[in-house]
């Protein structure tokens, strides 16, 4: 396992080659840490990459070409060792390629390239998925967790989420771990929403998104906050623990989603998946800005 550090005069970001995971993002002026540090009493990860699925499959399995494969929640990339490619002071590239081990659970040839680039107070994150030899069916997403409360002396319920653009979005409710498309509602994201534990009573809050979106966690009690900007991601998830006072909130850009209640288990028919022809590529990106 290797650690990679990116820094400039404003910020410092730290990554692990295990899962190509962002594990720290701090301002240099006051050493304020924005990324959840992984206390196992709540949740041990920081900002895992979700690939080749997002969310959970029924019975943790799927069928492809008349063969059944096992796949745990959010896929395997977050638990894989990535290769680090010639990092510089402000850019890091991590790669993961298919292998005999990955093909036991996912019978596709692929390359996943994760790029982080630090620009002043913003970390730009991109995923490039490349199909090799055959078609590729996949989901991918980010799962960054942010410290809330962010500043000592403030409390969780003093923070709120600000939505840009300010408009209503479709909410896709979960029934257990699965998406209930028939019970979709209109979420009042045309105004800010105060953070409270009850928001996460049914696990993640999932919204459909279109085009460019920005989600900011902030508080009137402090000038500090964090903004996540998504580019062409069809879904976003907000998550924290409901039954524990977990001091973090995740904002998750998704190009994929959990199985629906009526899912057949056939990968080729799975809702929200991406498909690539042989020898083609898919690009996704988002950014995190801290202030």
Automatic annotation (TrEMBL):
Molecular function via GO: carbohydrate binding; isomerase activity
Superkingdom of origin: Bacteria
Name the UniProt record assigns to this protein: Aldose epimerase
CDD domains per the UniProt record, alphabetical: Aldose_epim_lacX
Gene3D superfamilies referenced in this protein's UniProt entry, alphabetically: 2.70.98.10
GO term, biological process aspect, one: carbohydrate metabolic process
